Structures are given as structure tokens and as C-alpha cells.
Amino acid sequence: MSRGEVAQTAKAYQVPAIERSMLILQALQQHGPLGLADLVSETGLSRSTCYYLVRTMAKAQLVESDEETRKYHLGIGLVELGSAATEQLGYLGVIKRYIFDLLEEMDATFVIYRRLDRGRVAIVDKVEPSHRLRVTVPLGTTLPIQGGSFGRCFLAYDHPTAVREILNAGLQRYTEQSITDVDRFLSEINGVRERGWALDREGFALGVSTVAAPMLRDGQPLLVVGAVAMAATLADDATVERWGRRLREICDSASTALHRHPRGSSGLDGGVALDER
Question: Which InterPro entries does this one have (predicted)?
């Protein structure tokens, strides 16, 4: 079968209603509650298509409507599905078990990233301190892979040719601290692979710095764990070095645990009681 025939076959198996429903869910994820007119504008769907889809999705509690504002927002059904997916993705439970041990050591929000494709990363989970000022990050957020320390942890294990291809379009300047020189960026990636963790000082968001390390499986990043903190917290190199080493340690421990119990956290002591810690 030729490449064109494969593409045509794949297209034939796509379901337009599901693709259009995802456009609606993604619009609500990115923009929050929206009225029907705004949903039409954001998704490019016709008004009638959008109307019937949100009515159907509302019956399944995937979206809900506010009678006063006449706006739609993400529904409780998604929370239930997300909770079930998290339980099935056992490696999230494994790494979170180790992250909880760091809450008293580091004044940070711990964010777990997963790579979507060559150029994008998504926030799939987080662990936040309960009694301190913290940096908040919304789950499901999609980020460019060049955007911070999390992306460098993924790119550090890519083939150099693949990295060059990703960077061919250039590096975006998010703040005055962003690295926009390709050679310097490549040097940073090499350093990540050597020491096992990455640092971003206000390069993606002003006032916020992040130390991150990859959780490896078969030599490739399965997830990346980032400790996100106010920039002042990571102002000195000694703190950065300590956080980097500790993140590397817990990611290595989680990788070892996952190797021993490949089906996830169900075989680990305490793995089923994460929320109680």
C-alpha cells in the first residue's frame, strides 16, 4: 500500500462528529465558559452543528450550561473520566508517590509534563503545597517544547538531527531572559543530558523559574517533573543544584519502581493511598 493510500485509509476512518466535539472541548479548555456565538467563532463550526453537539455533550455531562449567563463550560463527566484515566496511567501514581516526599523540602508546585508530539508538551498532573503561596498551573495546558526547562528535558534525548529540525523555525522570545540563540540552546540541551536536569530562570514567564528532570523508560523520557517556583526562591546556584539533584533522584527511583512493577503503582506499598499523604 502506498503512502497516499495509507493516508486516504486513515482519513476514511476519522469520525467528524468526534473531531468537532474535540474542537468544542478544546475551546472551553483554553478560554473558559463561552456562549454559543463564541463557540462558533472559536471552532469554525456552523451554528447549528455547534448547537446540536453541545446539547448532546451536555446529556453526557461532558459540558454544562449556566442558565443565567447562557454560557457553556466543561462538565463533571470529564472530571470522572480524567480521574479514571489517571488511575489507569499507573506511572503517574508512581512518580507522584515520590513527589510527595519533596513537599517539605522545596517551596514549589510540582508539575508533570508529557510529550504530545515533536513540538508540544502537555501538563498532565500536578502536586501543590497546601499551606504556602504557590504558582498555579492549569491541567491540560499545552506548551511549546522550546518553552522552558521541561522541553529541554525531552529534547536532550532526541537525535541531534531531530532537534535541529524542531529548531529550524527559530526560538521564540517569551521574556527578556529567553534563550533565542540556537547554539546556546543546543549547549543547554547537552548540559541537561550530562547532569540529568534542566533549569529555566524566567525564560518562559517573568517571576517564575523551574528546575526539571526526566523520568526515563528504556532510555527515553516518559514524563518530566518540574519544580515551579517564584524566581527569588531559585536565585542562588546552591538551591538550584540541590533541587536538580533531588529531582533526578526521585525520577530515577520512580523509573526503577516502574521497571519492577510495569503495570504501575498497584504493586507498590502506599501506591493506592496517594491522596491521604
Answer: ArsR-like_HTH, GAF-like_dom_sf, HTH_MetabolicPath_Reg, Tscrpt_reg_IclR_C, Tscrpt_reg_IclR_N, WH-like_DNA-bd_sf, WH_DNA-bd_sf
For residue 138 the three cell numbers come to 492549569
Q: Which fold has domain 89-276?
A: Beta-Lactamase (3.30.450)
Domain assignments of the chain as residue spans, ordered by start:
3-78, 89-276
Helix (H) or strand (E) holding 210: strand 208-217
Separation CA 83–CA 87 (nearest Å): 6
Taking the model in full, what pTM does it have? 0.62
* Residue 36 CB coordination number (10 Å): 15
Pairing of strands 120-127, 142-144: antiparallel
Q: What does the pLDDT look like over 76-90, one tens digit per residue? A: 888 878 766 665 557
- Asked if 36 contacts 51 with a C-beta cutoff of 8 angstroms, the reply is yes
- Contact at 8 Å (CB) between 196 and 188? no
Maximum alpha-carbon separation in the chain:
59
95-147 pLDDT tens trace: 888 888 888 888 888 999 999 888 888 888 888 877 655 566 777 778 888 87
CATH numeric code, 3-78: 1.10.10.10
Phi, psi of 112 (to 5 degrees): -110, 125
